[in-house]
Design a protein that fits this description.
554 residues; alpha/beta; Alkaline Phosphatase, subunit A; Gyrase A, domain 2; 2 domains; 10-stranded mixed beta sheet; 20 helices; 17% strand; binds zinc ion
Length: 554
């Protein structure tokens, strides 16, 4: 009897230990209140250090000193462009698998695609039809929604539609992007049901922030003598928009008409200010981080890419852009401290790709480099084929050249009964005669192409059979393709090749669960989502090939 009383009393104690006021207390999965993804479009890794001396203590330096720095983070596929980059960060996968083979591509049936085209949806304001439907895999943000039975909420914010839509995944609550015809943020009917923006966004748009920001123009933040990382020679630099007369500071955009002013904003530091104001309005409007489940705010800063393309890495504009961004990051961290609480949010900062130095800038200093434009050479290539194949008339067997890839018109080849392999061989022969081409790969027969690592793996990772050109070429270091059918652009710069200047990106982790430290071990862009999955205790995205960065997860 005594033993029975003892068992009953022990059971009661054990039971009462997990009951409190009638509620069962359970140990919950430990996750942060909010994850903030911050992609700085076109940020080179070396900008962390090139401009370090002029950064304040609370922006990049706070992330570097109190966070975890993956010093050697590499893009591990071709082409190093915006849409594949955002897709890779958020899927842990590569174009061969996730399907985002470029910002633009031509599919196997000859149809041209913009990466987030979707004829089945409409823009809430404007005319564009966009969604993540071309993305073939889930994202880490999708997996967070799935892991919490859709109770976690996911929002994307960026000037560029693709910088917002792809990170938000298929299950995102909304992806907001800039409509430069109207000077407002908006979304598409993929997310907005009913057919309107939420009240908080309508109120935000009514503030006409773009007007107040562009009235300030773009003048240097510091005295000119402070800018010791740039050369003041406007021959290397383009104009902020077609309305500008002189391609140098100060950029007096307040005199432009609305269309030019709304467009110019994208290339100004004010574009980052506007994006971060919108991100805060989204957090406040949706009360992110205030529920029982982890929310995710995927921000992408597109203006760094617009400015990079226009001005190139050694311009005063790019230096000024990053000095101002440093101060914006300090403000963002302060805001997150106040709203979410220090260590309640997990933030990572990375880039979708980096960028080359302006080729003329390098040539002027005797470094091998050149700008070419292969899409403008498509007619030449088709004339070459006409001669070699002894055709009676001009035939467009080569449909286009995009992403350093040649797209053949497969339907035309089939209908004319031409020998496709022979055409491919002739195209490769022609490419090999062109200046600056280091390698030409037949992607359908890669084993016959002697190309060194990592270029070979990057080409394979980037090759999507249904969306990539069947021939991939690689330029000599310093050479890039920056042209269209109308000619080449000598000012500014671009990206898209395998070289470290295009593929070495920053990766900083900060906040919840992040130890102070750094690693010089090479990690790949695909490891970002794998690491997030491990930290959040959720499944990796369904096409993820990355590995968790174990030095970060202790
Ligand atoms: Zn770009």
């Amino acid at each position: 009897m005594k033993r029975l009383i003892c068992i009953i009393s022990i059971s009661f104690i054990a039971f009462s230990s997990c009951v409190n006021n009638g509620e069962v207390r359970r140990d919950r999965v430990k996750r942060p209140k909010l994850v903030v993804g911050l992609v700085v479009d076109q940020m080179r890794w070396d900008y962390l250090y090139r401009f370090y001396d002029l950064y304040g203590n609370d922006g990049f330096k706070r992330l570097l000193k109190d966070g975890f720095n993956c010093q050697n983070t590499m893009v591990n596929y071709l082409p190093a462009n915006t849409a594949p980059g955002h897709s890779c960060i958020y899927t842990g996968s590569v174009p061969s698998i996730h399907g985002i083979a470029g910002n633009n591509w031509i599919d196997e049936n000859g149809k041209k695609w913009y990466c987030v085209d979707d004829p089945n949806v409409k823009s809430v304001l404007g005319i564009s039809s966009m969604s993540p439907s071309t993305l073939l895999t889930t994202t880490i943000t999708d997996e967070l929604r799935l892991a919490t039975n859709f109770q976690s909420r996911v929002f994307g914010v960026a000037i560029k539609d693709r910088g917002s839509i792809l990170p938000s995944g298929h299950l995102g609550n909304a992806a907001y992007f800039y409509n430069d015809s109207l000077g407002v943020f908006t979304t598409t009917t993929y997310y907005a049901k009913p057919f309107q923006n939420p009240d908080w966004l309508q109120a935000f748009n009514k503030r006409k922030v773009v007007d107040s920001l562009t009235k300030l123009n773009w003048k240097p933040l510091l005295a000119q003598k402070e800018y010791n990382q740039s050369v003041d020679y406007s021959a290397y630099y383009g104009k902020i928009c077609k309305a500008e007369k002189v391609a140098s500071f100060p950029h007096m955009v307040d005199t432009f008409n609305d269309a030019n002013r709304f467009s110019a904003l994208k290339t100004m530091p004010a574009g980052n200010t506007y994006t971060l104001m919108m991100a805060k309005a989204c957090r406040d409007g949706e009360k992110l981080g205030q529920g029982d489940n982890t929310d995710f705010l995927a921000i992408s800063l597109s203006s760094t890419d617009y400015a990079g393309h226009t001005y190139a890495p050694n311009s005063m504009e790019v230096e000024d852009m990053y000095l101002r961004l440093d101060r914006e990051i300090a403000e963002l961290l302060k805001y997150l401290d106040e709203t979410e609480g220090r260590n309640n949010y997990l933030l990572f900062l990375t880039a979708d790709h980096a960028a080359a130095h302006n080729a003329i800038f390098l040539k002027d200093r005797d470094v091998p480099a050149e700008v070419v434009g292969f899409s403008g050479k498509v007619p030449d290539l088709n004339y070459y084929l006409k001669e070699q194949l002894h055709l009676d008339s001009f035939t467009r067997y080569v449909q286009d050249i995009i992403n350093y890839q040649v797209f053949l018109d497969n339907n035309l080849i089939k209908s004319t009964g031409a020998d496709r392999q022979h055409i491919k061989d002739l195209v490769m022969d022609w490419l090999k005669t062109q200046s600056g081409i280091a390698y030409v790969m037949d992607m359908e027969n890669i084993s016959k192409s002697p190309v060194p690592e990592p270029i070979r793996s990057m080409a394979i990772n980037g090759y999507n059979r249904r969306r990539s050109g069947c021939i991939q070429y690689v330029m000599d270091p310093g050479w890039y393709d920056f042209g269209n059918a109308n000619g080449i652009t000598l000012t500014g710069t671009t990206h898209g090749s395998w070289n470290p200047y295009d593929t070495h990106i920053p990766l900083l982790w900060y906040g919840w669960g992040v130890p102070k430290g750094e690693t010089h071990t090479v990690v790949n862009m695909t490891d970002i989502s794998a690491t997030l999955a491990a930290m959040l205790h959720i499944q990796m995205p369904n096409g993820c090939i990355g590995k968790p960065i174990v030095e970060l997860i202790k």
